[in-house]
Amino acid sequence: MSDKYQSFTQSAIGKVLVKNLGLPSPAKLERYAAGAPLVKGTVLVGGRGRLAESLDGLLGELDATSTDTAAAGARFKGLVFDATGLTSTSDLVALQEFFTPVMRSLENNPRVVVIGTPPEQLTGRERVAQRALEGFTRSLGKEIGKGGTVQLVYVAKGFEGSLLSTLAFLLSPKSAYVSGQVVRIGTKNASPAAEQVDPKKPLTGKVALVTGAARGIGEEIAKVLQRDGATVVGLDIPPSEDDLKKVTPDYITADITAEDAPGKIASYLEEKFGGVDIVVHNAGVTLDKKLANQKADRFGTVLEINISAPERITAKLLEQNLIRPNGRIIGVSSIAGIAGNLGQTSYGASKAAVIGFVDSLAEELPDGITINAVAPGFIITQMTAAVPFATREVGQRLNAMSQGGLPVDVAETIAWYASPASTAVNGNVVRVCGQMMLGA
Ligand code: NAD
Q1: Using a 6 Å cutoff on CB, does residue 346 contact ligand 1?
Q2: What are phi and psi of 335, to 5 degrees?
Q3: Which CATH superfamily groups domain 31-185?
Q4: Domain spanning 207-432, CATH architecture
């Protein structure tokens, strides 16, 4: 399941054609290798605001070399700008003054993070200025090139010390296919980060349930959570048992829509582990048809698998107090749930409902339990390999990185939410889409 166009653009003849015909030229994206440093290179820090004092310490914990001066000839892997001190739109020119001189001094796969204050917590001119940061970062994401990413992180007041797991994700190759995103820290009833973790093995001692773990994105989520130290309980339908047991020795075979599935899952987790720390609702299906040709059973099946079953399983686990304090619930939405897609009224509704599920639970979960979701764009899996060539090409190229993502890109985003240090990350929906042109 490789991207043949991307391989072609890296051949001698491909390079000539790309240059002369102005064809999209997908950069090679670096992925994280277990045990490697999170940031390989220097991070330039700019701006003056609430984060100024804590940023150097945070970057030090990531083993990143940081500096606040751009010496002549220096190259940068990352740029972090604390914009929390910008209190009116006339201050925004500070962004241009910091970024313009260094935009040509970036290494390959550079990482840019702008930090602001959630506008909804502000009033007047400061609110207007902070809202402007979204347009700035989303535009920079579309022009940075070289496989670079640009994000905006809104940090609520009082949460300055809760940024470590988020910077570890956004400044490292783990966020290879995440760009143009707005992350909120410390909003929606979140608690400040409490547990200290080893950034290289943050999930040591944690138990994670991953549904749909036998193949595709779910299999990769299981592997990444295991790499980070978790014990993974995989779940998939009975015909997938052979594949599932290769992923993890701890597994449940069930159709999540079966009436007894929530009870079966709860009993397994209780008896074997006394509870669960991380629940990833990844199992999902598409049964595409234009609405004019749709049948009630197919429409209903998509909704049952993609959202009603995750709702019932979550309710059961919460009711029986099986999700431990500082636990994590993670949904898998889709770009189709944000932008809509032809033939996908059922799928789009189910994936928008995953976002609704995050919104509805984020304010009411007890004991530091959080809920967040990922919304993948075009990810190269068996599901998308079946898409006809022309549609697949459009899906793969219509994003700022001119390529599809890999299952590992979704898995790494989920591992960031799952970290015990991400307690302040609650109620977010982050797209893993290479900044796709579709939707917001
Ligand atoms: P996939 O079809 O390769 O894997 C889905 C897994 O879920 C399979 O192992 C399947 O057996 C399991 N499953 C399906 N119905 C089930 C049920 N009723 N009970 C238990 N298990 C069940 O799909 P994928 O591409 O890996 O997608 C994983 C998730 O990511 C899905 O929720 C999908 O909607 C979402 N997603 C995928 C993409 C993409 O580009 N591949 C894009 C956006 C969202």
Answers
A1: no
A2: -60, -30
A3: NAD(P)-binding Rossmann-like Domain (3.40.50.720)
A4: 3-Layer(aba) Sandwich (3.40)
State whether the beta carbon of 173 lies less than 6 angstroms from ligand 1: no
Q: Do domains 31-185 and 207-432 have the same CATH topology?
A: yes
Mean pLDDT, the chain, rounded, equals 93
Rounded to an integer, what distance in angstroms lies between the CA atom of residue 427 and that of residue 373? 8
Mutate which of 381, 398, 410, 432 for ligand 1? The one with the most ligand atoms within 8 Å of its CB, which is 381
Q: Is the CB of 240 under 6 A from ligand 1?
A: yes
Q: In the sheet where 323-332 sits, what is the strand order?
A: 251-253, 231-236, 207-211, 276-281, 323-332, 370-376, 429-432
Binding site membership of 338 for ligand 1 (Cβ less than 6 Å): no
Interface predicted TM-score (ipTM) over 0.85: yes
Atom nearest to 306 CA in ligand 1? 32
Quick one: pLDDT at residue 18? 67
pLDDT tens per residue across span 65-82: 888 888 889 999 999 999
Which residues lie below 8 Å from residue 32, measured CB to CB, with a gap of 6+?
A: 38, 172, 173, 174, 176, 412
CA of 353 to the centre of ligand 1 (A): 16
- Residue 315's pLDDT is 98
DSSP string, 188-251: TTPPPP-----TTSTTTT-EEEEETTTSHHHHHHHHHHHHTT-EEEEEE-GGGHHHHHHH-SSE
- This prediction's pTM: 0.96
Ligand 1 centre distance from Cα of residue 282 (Å): 6
Q: What whole-number distance in Å separates Cα of residue 377 and Cα of residue 399?
A: 9
Q: Looking at beta carbons, which pairs linking 129-137 to residues 24 or more positions away fall under 8 Å?
A: 129/86, 129/87, 129/88, 129/89, 129/91, 129/92, 130/83, 130/86, 130/154, 132/89, 132/92, 133/83, 133/86, 134/182, 136/92, 136/95, 137/112, 137/180, 137/182
pLDDT at residue number 22: 66
The rounded distance, in Å, linking the Cα atoms of 181 and 434 is 10
pLDDT at 416: 98
The residue ranges of the chain whose pLDDT is under 50 are none
Domain map (residue ranges) of the chain? 31-185, 207-432
Q: What is the pLDDT of residue 417?
A: 98
Residue bearing the CA closest to ligand 1, atom 17: 255
